[in-house]
Design brief:
Helices cover 39% and strands 7% of the residues. The protein is mainly alpha-helical. The strands form two sheets. A three-stranded parallel sheet has the order 1-2-3, with helices on one face. A two-stranded antiparallel sheet has the order 4-5. Strand 4 (241-243) and strand 5 form a beta hairpin. Helix 4 runs antiparallel to helix 5.
């Protein structure tokens, strides 16, 4: 399940109070409602940034004007073409505001009133006591920090805490608005791939495990884990060496450590520092050098299992 600025936060926004008033707006004013809400739905600077970049690119390329004439230097580029630049900017804005002017027709007043009721009723079900704790579907919440429509900035964290451990991943879009997917620089496919929500492709990096029962962490989760090691790494500066089995020579890195051939696993045995702060370094280095996720073993009491069976 992938949620982009999920409406589960609708009940904590002003819209349950303001929303029922919108369908009461006279018809001649209702047609202008989408434009009035545009600053709430979109981040204007980000939308304009895409238009400006498109205009600059068209002008620098010397794109043809509306009457198919090129700029005055006799060639196809270099001099810039204001008409083409404006046309490119307009086209980009039209792409970024899909059907904005038609929203009042797509969502008539009665339809809007019905959908607002559905949102309110849905929030009562989803946010009921214990409801999210029973939700078992793996979920990705993509949340914008500058969503002015609903409080999406806090919703991802709330869902992650309320749902069972490991069931909700959160991708935060810094500086984006409610309509983040319409803004330049936001690629949903990239977000899904980074969080492990797309099927593996032939060009993807090798999987970190051969165990079909184990789901390895996503690239986004690995980045967060590696980031948590940076302070300690800066203090102790770990260095890794391994010994080649063929000649006993010590080499830099973990390239000489034997790995499983698929028939049986490899057990790494060694002493480590008190409380094992070096385990994170070992895991990170094996992932980066060998593309393998090693798993640390510990007595059950360390994991809260106690001494009993």
């Amino acid at each position: 399940l992938v949620l982009v600025n999920p409406a589960s936060s609708f009940d904590r926004s002003p819209w349950p109070t303001i929303g029922p008033l919108l369908p009461l707006i006279p018809g001649e004013l209702y047609t202008g409602l989408p434009y009035a809400l545009a600053p709430v739905l979109f981040d204007s600077p980000k939308l304009l940034q895409g238009a400006v970049l498109a205009a600059i690119k068209a002008a620098e390329a010397g794109a043809p004007t509306a009457n198919n004439s090129f700029n005055g230097d006799g060639g196809g580029g270099g001099g810039g073409d204001p008409a083409a630049a404006l046309a490119a900017a307009g086209a980009e804005l039209a792409r970024l505001f899909p059907a904005l002017g038609q929203l009042s027709n797509i969502i008539p007043r009665d339809t809007l009133a019905h959908r607002l009721t559905i949102l309110s009723d849905g929030c009562k079900v989803v946010n009921a006591d214990g409801a999210l704790a029973r939700f078992k579907t793996r979920t990705l919440a993509v949340c914008s920090t500058n969503d002015l429509l609903i409080p999406s900035a806090d919703e991802g964290t709330r869902l992650k805490r309320a749902m069972p451990t490991g069931k909700c991943a959160v991708e935060t879009l810094e500086g984006n608005s409610h309509a983040a997917l319409q803004e330049a620089g936001v690629n949903l496919s990239t977000i899904l791939r980074r969080n492990g929500f797309l099927p593996r492709q032939p060009g993807d990096a090798p999987s970190l495990t051969r165990d079909p029962r184990f789901t390895p962490p996503s690239p986004a989760e690995l980045d967060k884990a590696f980031e948590s090691l940076q302070i300690l790494k800066a203090i102790v500066s770990p260095v890794f060496f391994s010994t080649r089995a063929s000649d006993g020579k010590v080499v830099s890195g973990l390239g000489a450590v034997p790995l499983s051939d698929g028939a049986r696993p490899v057990l790494l045995v060694g002493n480590h520092q008190t409380l094992a702060p070096d385990l994170g370094f070992l895991i990170e280095q094996f992932i980066k050098e060998r593309g393998v996720l090693i798993r640390g073993l510990a007595h059950p009491i360390v994991a809260g299992g106690g001494m009993g069976g």
